[in-house]
Amino acid sequence: MKKNELLKTAHHVRQTPLGPIAILWSIHEGQPKIFRISLLNQKTPANHFSHTALGSSKAETCPEIDKAADLIEAFLHGEDVQFPLAILRMDTCSDFQRRVLLAEYGIPRGQVSTYGLIAAFLSRSLAARAVGTALARNPFPIFIPCHRAIRSDRTLGGYQGGRIMKRALLEMEGICFDNTGRVIVNDFYYRSSSSPTPDNKIHPIANCFV
Description:
CATH architecture of the largest domain: Orthogonal Bundle
Mean pLDDT: 85
Order of helices and strands: EEEHEHHEHHEHEEEE
Strand order of the largest sheet: 3-2-1-4
Number of domains: 2
Distance between the termini: 36 Å
Structural class: alpha/beta
CATH superfamily of the largest domain: Winged helix-like DNA-binding domain superfamily/Winged helix DNA-binding domain
CATH topology of the largest domain: Arc Repressor Mutant, subunit A
Shape: globular
Low-confidence stretches: 1-6, 198-210
Strand content: 15-25%
Radius of gyration: 17 Å
């Protein structure tokens, strides 16, 4: 497909170890851009996945979208993947949600934080619930690892793909659980001395704190 070809909405579905994942994308400013990644929730019957996740979009792909799907597959097979943000339509998010998603993106593999600590990191200490809502509506799960945010009591909290998938993702990254289903963690990211300070900015393209 030529990048200047008019494309309203397209989708590309990959089968993964955790079920089908759909990438919804379009051409934006001459480049293929992802505006949503959809997971199959355990509560959603598989035969309804295409209707609920894909809508009327056209089955289509291109090298850039294939590469994004390859990265998701590699990640779900246990590889340590650094997802690029430049392909995501972050401009479709509100300013607050974008800040939450970038803070979430900053949590390293194998670590977790809490909704409250993310809120405090963003200088919105009373906005833990709003952080949870922003992550629940994350358009880019896997690319933005919202599974790395849990409750302060170490229970999982919600996840678009369901709690079974959330636990599987964390276990894949080396996170352990006790016999009550709570995360075993020595410290939460954004609370330890090794975490970035609230004064740092998260750069959405360079994938680092600057």
